[in-house]
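for the writeup, i need someone to sanity check this before i put it in the appendix. the sequnce is what the collaborator sent (i think, or maybe the updated version? ugh). structure was predicted straight from it, no edits. if anything looks off just tell me and ill rerun, i have time this weekend
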Amino acid sequence: MLLGIISDTHSLLRPEALAALRGSDHILHAGDIGSPDIIPALEQIAPVSAIRGNVDVEPWTRKFPFTLTVEFGGLKFHLIHNRAELKPNKLPKDIACIIFGHSHQPLIETVDDILYFNPGSAGPRRFKLPITVGRIRIERKRLFPELIPL
């Protein structure tokens, strides 16, 4: 199974991001969607699970939760926009991966057997940070994360 991971689009969905996410079985958006057009465009590629971020304050964003736990390939993924707001003692049990955004800084890190994955920002450039999306391949209950520069 292949998960496409995107965050911080801030109303900009680059053609390069769409191209990088093609072939995904499911797409996870870690917030700061920015525009009601983003999720339907991603759904043209694969089903989407999304959360809202700190810029998602318009009425159309109310349908998206602030956090979400989903399961793929027998593994649990927890989405939260800002890692600083994560409350480890309130996480569902057996989380394999925490997906977040907010900082616009791509990151792959493992802490206490949990993969922390920030795909970076796919939207407008912030400072000199790269423009990226991510993928996580799931094979036999193992995670293989990848960052994709755009």
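Residues 51 and 64 are 5 Å apart (CA to CA). The chain has one domain: 2-149.
thx in advance!!
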